[in-house]
User: Fold ABC transporter permease subunit from Streptomyces broussonetiae.
Amino acid sequence: MSTATAIYQKSLSDSRRSLVGWVIGCAFMGMAYASAYPSQKNNLDNIPQNLRDSMNIDNSAAGYLNAAEFGLVLPLLLLIYAIAAGHRATAGDEEAGQLDLVLAHPVTRTQLMLQRFANLVTGAFVISFVVWLALLAVRGNAELTSISPAQFLAQCLGLALLASTFGALAVALGAATGRRTVVLAGTAAVAVVTYALHTMAEPVGADWLAYLSPFHYYIGGEPLRNGFQWTDYGVLVVLTAVCLAVGASRFNRRDINS
Assistant:
């Protein structure tokens, strides 16, 4: 095992069983919601018009998936995965009194944080890629052929980057505070508030608020209709880098277990 990536490889090995569960669960949910489109598309008319407008919902395949699958269910699952993995990156070991033991190995605090974050990102991309394959498997029978494989891939890429962004926030909070409760409550609160900004900005006549939300850069450009949104992806990457930089700075300055 290379010493340069030892923490990453160990984290990947330790999390492989739970990752398999996340992959199977998310792929199943993706297939189930996608397969329901033929029977559920007409029910979209019951959604309030202001919410339909803010989330680009209509009776098309892309509109249905924006409402149900990629607008709520899959982001929620990936955020739960990211927050759970993020709080274990440093805060879990610190509260268990084991972080000093880990840092006794030839690894810096920043390396520890980044390699465990890399494990989180690997999981997010693996889950999203398998979701993409699952959607392609049901695309024909579920009447989703108006969405190309590339458009599905564009949305799944955004999903992985969204999870990575909130995962970076969770890792940063854990590195900065060493408290799992702060990580879980703080990241969840940011997710709820920013999701509300994304969905409610247009109905309340304050469109600019949506630009404060990572969810806007995940789905606001409608990848299921317009394909890859590289500028939006870039914003998510920058947000991720900022979270990690702030977390690493604080992690390197504070006393562990204090």
In short: Residues 3-253 form one domain. Residues 109-138 form the longest helix (30 residues).
